Amino acid sequence: MPNILLSSIYASSMLPATCLSCSMRAPYGSDGTRNATHGSDSPGSAEREVKFFFPDLQLTSTAHSPAAAQDYIAKYLQPTLVKALTELARQKPTSDKHEAITFLANWMLEHNPNKPRLEVPAELQQQLHKQREAAAAADAAAAAAAAERQKARASAVQARAS
Questions:
Q1: Choosing a second label site near 121 at 20 to 30 A (CA), which of 29, 135, 144, 147?
Q2: How far is Cα 53 from Cα 45, in angstroms, rounded to an integer?
Q3: pLDDT tens digit string along 38-82?
């Protein structure tokens, strides 16, 4: 990835409303999170964010060659893009281009192969399960008590009416 791309990413880190009308962010962005492009707030952030989305990308001088870029795109980007575009074509969510881009962006966010996965240890899962059961039991007890209070009020109202 050329340094110029990192510089461009940094330079375009504004909200869509303040972007030039010829930029990709102006017509395809609604806010700083949902947009067709991403801009980082600093070169350091840009490098960190590129590493997040493309962890195997080597930001060294050898990665700047066109052949290295083509290899990287073919190996890491195309498989995900093909899946995303296939899903877009299969579902055909809309004929509106902005909605289609939003569908594609949401699908790619949901199916990002580099998305961190949370693995909860078995012991913690058991603790969470016990806490959920205790909370459900407390909710049931509170609901039963509320029903009893309502029943008692109804009986008191009926007794006064008689």
A1: 135
A2: 12
A3: 677 787 887 888 888 788 777 665 456 788 778 888 888 888 889
Give this prediction's pTM. 0.37
Angle at 53 between CA 42 and CA 121, to 5 degrees: 115
Distance of CA 120 to the CA centre of its chain: 20
Token pair of 104 as six digits: 């594609």
Q: How far is CA 110 from CA 86, 97, 105, 107, 117, in A?
A: 15, 20, 9, 5, 12
- Name the one residue in this structure whose structure tokens are 């962005």: 29
The secondary element (H helix, E strand) that includes residue 108 is helix 97-110
Mean pLDDT of 104-117: 83
